[in-house]
Amino acid sequence: LVELLLLVRGRSAMASGVASMTVDDAATEMKVVVDNGGGGVAGGGVGESAVVARSRRAMVAEERIARDEWDLEAWQSLVADAQTRKFSSDDPPAPDYERFLKQFPTAARLWKIYAEHSRKELVKGVTGEEALHEGKARVRDIFDRGTRFCPTSVELWRSYTDFTRHYIGRPEAAALYEQALTSSGLDLSAHVIWTDYRDFLASAQDLDDAAKRQMVRKIYERMMRMPINNLDAIWREYEEFENLGGNRDLARGKLQENNGRYVASRAEARARKTRRENLSSNALAVPPGTSARDDEQARQWKKFLAAERSNPHTLDQKDLGDRVTHAFECALAVLYRYPDAWCEAARYQLDLGRVENAVSLLHRGIEALPASELLTFEIASLEESRKNKETARAFFEQLINTNPSALAYIQFMRFLRRCDSVEASRKMFTRARKDIRNVSYHVYVAAALMEFQLNREPKVARNIFELGLKTFPESIQFALEYIDFLWNNNEDSYLRVIFERVLSRLPAVPETTLVWNRFVQYEQTFGDATSFEATLRRCKDAMGDGYARSWTDVCLDRYRFRDLLPMALDETHGPAVTERRSGATSSLTNVGRSSKNSRSKESDRDRDRQTDVSTAPRGAPSMQLGDLFIRLFNTVPLSGPPTDVNFVLNLLHMTPTAFQYCPAFRDGGGSSGGAPSGASGGGPGTNTATGSKRKRNEGSVSHTTSEPGADIFKTRQAQRQQGKFR
C-alpha cells in the first residue's frame, strides 16, 4: 500500500509540473545526471558529472523531501530503496544513508541497518588484506558514530559487539561489552546484552574453570541490581549456576545475598515497564510542532522523566542519579530537536555535581541545534562560571554568525560588559546597529539601560534613546520605553517635548492610544486642570472612535488614590463600575508598561488591593457570564494539579452576593457538592426546604446561615481585609 501511495503521489506531482515523466517511465529505472560539484554522492571530482541509475521510488522520495524536509514517509522510502542497492553499484546506498542520518542522527535502527549492510558487503565482496582492513574500519566508524548519537540503543550495541567479536578480537570485544553495559545496561531490554556478555566470558579459552566461574558470578551479581526484563529466567539460571558449583554452603550464601536485590530489581522493572507503555524509543526525532502525534510523544516522555525523578522506588542518591540519567538519554533520542530537553538534562547533571557530564550534554545539544539561543546562553553561562571566558565568547560568536537576533546581540553585550570591558560592550552595540535586518528596538533599549544602570552614564543612555527614536520613529513600544525612562528619572520638562514629538509621528492606529493615555496620565500628574482637559480633548480628537472610554471612567481614574475611590461602587451600574467589580484593569493607569515604571507598578498593586464587594447593590443587575468568569479565574489556582470541577462550582457560591445575580449562575451555576443551585435552593429568589430568601436592607443583601458557602465567604472576606488571603 505504501508503494502504491508513493506511486500515485509521484504521478500527481509530475502531473502538476514537478517533473516530466510518462506513466511507462515510472515503472522503469531512470537515468538522471547528478552534478557532483562540492562533494556529490556519486563520486568523481569537483564539477564532474556522472550518470547514475535511480529507482522510481528514490526519485519520488527525493521530490517529496525537496518540498518538505520533515516528510517522514519520504525519508523512510528513500532508505528502503537504499537497502536494495549494493555499495559497489553505480548508485551506492551510502549517500542516502548518510543523508538520512544527518537529518535523524538518533535513528538507532537505521545506524544498525547501515552498519550491517556495509558488513554484509564486507563479507561477500571484499578481497585482499588492505581492502578488508578498510572495510572493517568503515563498519567500525559507522558503529562508533551510531553509538555516540544513540548511547542507550541495545540493539545497536548488540550488533556492534557481535561484529567486534567476530572480526576484531576478544580483548576489544570485552572492552566494548563493558562500554555497552555502561551506556545501556539499565535499559529494560538490556538483558540480551548481559546474557551475551555472560556467555562470552564463559566461552573464554585462555582461562581455567575457576577464573571463568568467578567472572560469570560477578556478571550475575551485577544483573541482580539491574531493573531489566526476563529477571525471573536469569535468576533460575543463576540458581542452577551456583548449585552446580560443588560448594553448597557458598551457593546458599550467594543466593541468599542476591535474592533481595533480585526481588527489588524485578519490582522496579515491572513498574518502569508500566510507566513506559506509551513511549516509543524508535520514533524519529523531529522539531516541536511537526505533528500532533510527535508532540504527544514529547509530552509522554516529559511525564516519564518527571516520574523517574520523583524516586518512586526510594533509591539511594547514586542509583537514582544513574537511572534518571539513563532516562534522559532515552528521552533525548526522541526529543533531540527540543532545546528544553537538553537544558533539563544538563541541569540535572549539575544538580548531581557532575559538571563534565552537563558540559558534554550542552555541547551535544548545540550540535543538534546550532541556532538555539537557549542552549547557547546556557553553555556560555556554564563556561563563564568555570572561568572559560574565551570558550563562552566563541559560543556567542557562533550564534551571531548562525542565527543573528536582537536577543543574541543583547546577551552578548551583557556578557562582554561582565567579562571584558565597557568598550567591548559598546563595540558590540555598534556592530549590532549595522545588522539592520536582525536588530529590533530592543537592542537600543538594552544598551541604554546598561549605560544608565551599570555604567552610570545617564547622558549616554539618553543619547542612545534619541538614536533609537530616529531609527524607529513609528515604534509605539520604543516610544513607551523612552517615555518610561524619562518619567522614572523625573525629566518631566523634556518629557512633554518627547510626547509632542512622538505623537506627531505615530500613525493613527488603535495602539497609539497607549501613548495618548500615557500623555493624559502625565498631565494628571504634572500638569493642572486646564492642561489635563486640553490633552484629553486632543486625545479624543486624534483617536476619534478609537478612544471609547466613558467620562465616569476617566473621572474615577483621575481622582482616585490607591484603593480610595471618589464614588461607592453601588452608586451606579455603569460599565466602568462593572469592570471594577469583575477585576478588570483601568485602561488609563495600566498602559502596558508597568514592568519598567515604578508608578505603573504601584497602580497595578493598588488594583490588586481593592476590597471585594460583599453585598449586592440595590436593584442588582443581571451580570454577564464573562464578568463572572473573570472574577472566578482570579481565584482558581494557576499552578499545581488540574482543579477539581466541584472546587470550581463551590467557588461560584463563595463569591460575593452581587455575582450570584448572574443569570447563568441562578439557572444552575453550581452549588456545594457540585449540585445545581436550583436543586439546593441556594439561588436568589428560591423558596425550598433547604434554601432561604435573600433579605434586602438599605441596599445590602444578607445571607441566612443555611445559604451554601455563606460562612466560608465571610471567613475569606475577613482574611482578605487582614491581608492573609489574596
Description:
By secondary structure, the chain is mainly alpha-helical. The chain has helices spanning 2-15, 23-26, 56-67, 72-82, 94-103, 108-125, 129-149, 154-167, 170-184, 191-202, 209-223, 231-243, 248-275, 292-309, 317-334, 339-351, 355-368, 373-385, 389-402, 406-419, 422-434, 441-453, 458-471, 476-488, 492-505, 513-526, 529-543, 551-559, 575-581, 598-609, 625-633, 645-654, 663-666, 677-680, 710-721, and strands at residues 30-35, 49-54, 695-697, 700-702. The protein is built from 35 helices and 4 strands. The strands form 2 sheets. It has a two-stranded antiparallel ribbon with strand order 1-2. A two-stranded antiparallel ribbon has the order 3-4. The radius of gyration is 36 Å and the shape is elongated. Residues 10-51, 574-623 and 657-710 have low confidence and may be disordered.
At a glance:
The protein is mainly α. The chain has 35 helices and four strands. Strands 1-2 form a two-stranded antiparallel sheet. Strands 3-4 form a two-stranded antiparallel sheet.
Give the structural class: mainly alpha
Total strands: 4
Strand line-up of the largest beta sheet: 1-2
Q: Mind telling me the C-alpha Rg?
A: 36 Å
Strand content: under 5%
Largest sheet: 2 strands, antiparallel
**Annotation field: number of helices:** 35
Uncertain segments = 10-51, 574-623, 657-710
Q: Considering DSSP H and I runs of 4 or more, what fraction of the residues is helical?
A: 55-70%
Q: What form results from the Cα inertia axes?
A: elongated
| Span of the ends, CA to CA | 61 Å
Averaging pLDDT over every residue, what do you get?
A: 79
